[in-house]
Amino acid sequence: MDQPMFGVTRPYDEKDATIGNGTMIALVASERPTVDALYTRALELGGSCEGGPGVRGEEGEQAFYAAYFRDLDGNKLCAFRVGPA
């Protein structure tokens, strides 16, 4: 999780891939408050919520803390941190 990666999958909602559906940019953060700040700023600038900051799954050494949002063009982004609080 500390290296850039590129993934290709079917859209989660099983609909056709379009702008913001089937594409997502994920930004790794060094700590959870950075995830919170990115999400908050995105919404302040007119973005829309796709899932507020929080742990997805279980807490622990590999906890996935993330926030999802869309920019003004509809592109989906994610800010995330892997690891304990």
Report what the structure shows.
There is one protein chain. The protein is α+β, with helices and mostly antiparallel strands and 85 residues long. Helices cover 15% and strands 32% of the residues. The chain has 1 helix and 4 strands, in the order E-H-E-E-E. It has one helix spanning 32-44; strands at 25-28, 48-56, 64-70, 76-82. It has a 4-stranded mixed beta sheet, with helices on one face. Strand 2 (48-56) and strand 3 (64-70) form a beta hairpin. The chain is globular and about 35 Å long. The chain starts with 24 loop residues before the first strand and ends with a strand. The relative contact order is 0.25. The model has no long low-confidence stretch (mean pLDDT 90).
Helix coverage percent? 10-25%
By secondary-structure content and strand pairing, the structural class works out as: alpha+beta
Order of helices and strands: EHEEE
Overall 3D shape:
globular
Oligomer description: single chain
Largest sheet: 4 strands, mixed
Tell me the radius of gyration: 13 Å
**Tally of helical segments:** 1
Cα distance spanning the termini: 16 Å
Strand content: 25-35%
On the 0 to 100 scale, the average pLDDT is 90
In terms of per-residue confidence, which ranges show pLDDT below 50 for 5 or more consecutive residues? none
Strand order across the largest sheet: 1-4-3-2
Work out the number of β strands: 4
